[in-house]
Write a structure and sequence with these properties.
mainly beta; single chain; elongated
Length: 234
C-alpha cells in the first residue's frame, strides 16, 4: 500500500493518471495519460516516470540504476525534490495543499481513498480533471488539485482532488473539508482508515547512493531527461 501511494502521489504532482501496482525499485517508464506541467519549462509536454536506485549525483546530473543499467537525469533549479512519510488525519490542516483520490457520492461530495499532503509552496496541477474514461456503471475517476477552504457535511466513480486545506472539521466520520481550485470547490470526507502520506522538501544532497527514487521527467533532444520532480522513497 505504501509503495502504491508513493507512485500515486508522484502522479498527483503531474496531475496525471494514478499509477498502481508499481514496485519500489521501479524501472519502467510510462507516459502519463493526462498531465499538467511540473514547471514552466515542461508546459504542454507529457511527463514520464522513471525510477531505481541512486548511483550518484555529479553536479546537476543524477545517475540512477534501473534494471542493472544506468539512467541519467538532469536537475534544474525548478526540480522539486521530496521525501514521503506516513501521515495521519492530524496532518490535514487549514491551508495545506493536498491531493486526494475520492469516490463521488450521490450528493456530489467525495469519499477519499487516499490523501497526499505536499510541502509548503508546492502547488502543482491545480484544477479538476478526469483520470480515465467513465465506467459503464458511473462517473470516471478524477483528479482535482486545489486548496482546502471550508468544512460541510459530505454525501460514485473516483476523483483525485489536489488543493490547499482551509477550514477542516473532525467528525465521527473522520475529517471533512472543502478543497477549492481555480474554478470550483469539492467537499471531501477522509475516514480514519484512509491512507495518508506527507511529502516534505528535500535537497540534492539527500540523493545519496543506494536511495530508492521515483523521477518525473520531460524527455528532450538526444534522449536527455530533465527531472521535473524526484520523490525519495522510504
Amino acid at each position: 500500500m505504501a509503495r502504491r501511494m508513493i507512485w500515486a502521489g508522484a502522479a498527483m504532482l503531474c496531475a496525471a493518471a494514478a499509477l498502481a501496482g508499481c514496485q519500489k525499485n521501479a524501472a519502467e517508464e510510462a507516459s502519463a495519460s493526462s498531465a499538467a506541467p511540473a514547471s514552466e519549462a515542461a508546459a504542454n509536454v507529457q511527463p514520464q516516470f522513471g525510477g531505481g536506485v541512486v548511483n550518484g549525483l555529479a553536479g546537476q546530473t543524477l545517475t540512477v540504476m534501473a534494471q542493472g543499467a544506468p539512467v541519467t537525469y538532469q536537475l534544474t533549479p525548478s526540480t522539486a525534490i521530496m521525501v514521503t512519510h506516513k501521515g495521519t488525519l492530524a496532518d490535514i490542516k487549514p491551508g495545506s495543499f493536498l491531493g486526494t483520490t475520492n469516490t463521488p457520492s450521490a450528493d456530489g461530495s467525495g469519499l477519499s481513498t487516499e490523501v497526499h499532503i505536499f510541502p509548503p509552496g508546492v502547488k502543482i496541477g491545480e484544477g479538476d480533471r478526469p483520470m480515465g474514461p467513465a465506467p459503464a456503471s458511473g462517473q470516471a475517476t478524477r483528479m482535482t488539485n486545489g486548496t482546502v477552504s471550508a468544512a460541510s457535511p459530505a454525501a460514485g466513480g473516483q476523483r483525485m482532488t489536489n488543493g490547499a486545506a482551509g477550514n477542516v472539521a473532525t467528525t465521527s466520520q473522520g475529517v471533512q473539508m472543502d478543497v477549492a481550485y481555480q474554478d470550483g470547490t469539492r467537499h471531501i470526507v477522509v475516514t480514519p482508515t484512509t491512507p495518508i502520506t506527507v511529502m516534505s522538501s528535500a535537497k540534492p544532497e539527500d540523493l545519496k547512493p543506494g536511495t530508492n527514487v521515483l523521477v518525473g521527467y520531460v524527455p528532450g533532444p538526444g534522449g536527455t531527461k530533465t527531472a521535473s520532480f524526484i520523490n525519495i522513497q522510504p
